[in-house]
Specification:
- By secondary structure, the protein is mainly alpha-helical.
- Helices cover 52% and strands 5% of the residues.
- It is built from 4 helices and 2 strands, in the order ααααββ.
- A hairpin with a 2-residue loop joins strand 1 and strand 2.
- It is extended and about 50 Å long.
């Protein structure tokens, strides 16, 4: 076996054995994706970030929220977000709060 074959086999083995991201890391990655999607004004991608069961205090549904977001995108050609997360508290690993 050549050195390259051994190196490639080792890399694939390491990838296969990689530890799954922690719930906190998964939340951070989702928030980074949301920031990217919103700054790029990608309305269709933004839809995938909102639960179909979404409803806020004003009783707006996912559809209404996406409509509002679309209007905001039309009025604002540049969107810059500053997202700062000090900490993420998890009650249980499967239940972020």
């Amino acid at each position: 076996m050549s050195h390259l074959s051994i190196l490639l086999a080792s890399i694939f083995l390491l990838i296969g054995c990689a530890v799954e991201d922690s719930p906190e890391q998964q939340i951070r990655e989702m928030l980074e994706r949301a920031e990217t999607v919103l700054e790029s004004r990608a309305l269709l991608d933004a839809r995938s970030l909102v639960s179909d069961a979404y409803q806020d205090e004003a009783q707006r549904s996912k559809r209404e929220l996406i409509r509002l977001l679309g209007g905001y995108f039309l009025r604002n050609q540049s969107i810059y977000l500053l997202v700062q997360i000090d900490r993420i508290d998890l009650k249980e690993p499967q239940h972020p709060r």
